Amino acid sequence: MNRLGFLIARSLRDEAALQRLSAPQSALLDDLAGKRVALVGNARALSETRHGARIDAADLVIRINRAPMPMAESHGGRTDWLALAVRLGAADRDRIAPARILWMSPKRKRLDWRTASGPGFYLHPLADYRALAARLGATPTTGAMMIDLIARSDMARLELYGFDFFASLSLSGRRTAKQVPHDFKGESEWVRELVLADRRITRH
């Protein structure tokens, strides 16, 4: 598909055509198999830690949206995959330099051609988004969608960093929990239950 075809498919909300640009979910699950995965959220509280070296030591480092990394000591510096629900500016794209971008948002109109045509591009299925939204009873965050996806893989470990469910707000914006359409209390309880049920998952 060329850029014009992409723009037409996006305008017409032609999900089947857009999905043809995506790596299959099975390929991502295969890539996750046997890996120690660090999923890095954007909670401000992460800046007060010294988790950076441990994050970078993971087999696969996944960050979210604009992936703020104020200090290597707390956040590390590697990004293998970037999970997006916002458009990424050129400066952030060059700074983060992910090998694979995953478009997690159901809002296809925000998806840009550079992202969709990039190597390893993945478009998260709307059915998966809707299933998680139904389970949570609210719009899931990008982080929750990634946790759900990774937890369904044969990964060796999933370590969560920077997930305090807006207790310390976010490094990537100034909005409060009341200004975003997510149920952070519900997501926190869901993650707590996942951690209890799956010993591969740890939240730091």
TrEMBL record:
GO CC annotations on file: endomembrane system; membrane
InterPro entries hit by this protein: Glyco_trans_29, GT29-like_sf
Keyword tags: Glycoprotein, Glycosyltransferase, Membrane, Transferase, Transmembrane, Transmembrane helix
Compartments in which it is found: Endomembrane system; Membrane
A GO term, aspect molecular function: sialyltransferase activity
Domain of life (superkingdom): Bacteria
UniProt topology in membrane: Single-pass membrane protein
Name listed for the protein in its UniProt record: Glycosyltransferase family 29 (Sialyltransferase)
UniProt organism field: Paracoccus thiocyanatus
